[in-house]
Amino acid sequence: MGFISDQLIKWHKVSGRHDLPWQNTNDPYLIWLSEIMLQQTQVNTVLAYFKKFIKRFPDIDTLANAKTERIFELWSGLGYYARARNLHKTAIIVSQNYNGKFPSSFDTLLSFPGIGRSTAGAISAFAFKKKSLF
Hints:
Endonuclease III, domain 1
């Protein structure tokens, strides 16, 4: 690696966050959920919502089968409700068309509602260990 990347890694080991519930996992569901929640929202705000959300919807099939109103109830206070609608739409697609398993293809991820290049890249890199620019 280069000097700058080495310095960033060293800084992160000392000063970075190491206790976030979506870190140190390769579960694409948790990575996707955190990436969507973190859009336009601070980490400290997302933490409580994330924990509450995964307790109620522990996997993508549970989320896919949920009523939209229940998702909105748990989302209340996070704002940008289009994110919650897109979570539900994507959960339904993955549950019905991919047997509840996120596909590893960047382009397929990018085709899902609410998933842009950054989120698709994060899922590809962290869940599937693919090289990805995001």
